[in-house]
Amino acid sequence: MKLLLALLVALPLALAFEPSPFLTLSFNADGSNLSLRVMEDTAYYAPSFKPLPQGQSDYSWWLIDAGGRTFAAEVAYPNVLNWVPFSPEIRQVDIYRGNQRLLSLPISFCDNDRQCEPCSGERCVLLENALTCADCASGAADDYCDLRPDGVCDPDCQGAESDCADCRTCLTRTTTLNRTLCGKDLRGEICPPDIMCSEEGGFVPRPFQYADDSGAKCCVQGHCLIPPKERCRALGGNPCALGEEVCLGKVLFAEEMTDCCQAPCQPFSPYYHIPRAEEPDAEPQQKHSLPWPIIAEVLLLVGIAAFALRRRR
User: Fold this and answer.
1) Would you say 27 and 78 are in contact if contact means Cβ atoms under 8 Å apart?
2) pLDDT at 278 over 60
């Protein structure tokens, strides 16, 4: 019985979500603006873990240890966030395009000098934060939101940490696992509560999983569908509600009881006549005229009559 109770107590702990550290990379196509960071896949950084492109890439990044041995080589994509599991043994990062090495960057994550030395931006060679180095205390200003329950409001969390007295979302390291899984593991897209998950440009909702209790959705087979009114305004149009308003100009698109009108919407009236463009393939109307044989016969009779009148004279 005691063993059973112990298992029941230990099971939730075993199933509890424990964030994992990742080394992330972003760079431009020419190898410039290289940025490396170490972060955990907590709820705070979940929006950063967006799905990687599915197509092929000419780029790759190679992780090399202190002995010059390559222990990881991954496909890389420019202008997006790439990630691999973090290892403190990494001492060098090489970026390749095909067989050409664009750059080689030595890197360290802790120098144990009792000074917290964070770095963010292009080509940082020392990346210290509370996740990688004891030089940085939990909750320190180290360019990393650690979400640790230490009673310190981490300034890098922008007020989102549960230790912050005025927090709104009040995140912890184990908050909203599904939100993290959405982008990183399920390769989905997180839609806000008021945005439908649907096939892009379609009407039928696609399957989704809720990302957290806020009502956000993890769209795993489609895209976040922008409401027609917002999409219409983005196109420079005016959304007209069907049955209440009428579009007297060109309709850019019609969706969900909304006409996206290029002209201002007018209050609906049954007396409005909406002009419609002529069909491009419509044949031009033919003018009614008498057939040529009848015209010829009439002219012939008139000529005979005129000739007969002359002879009588």
Assistant:
1) yes
2) no
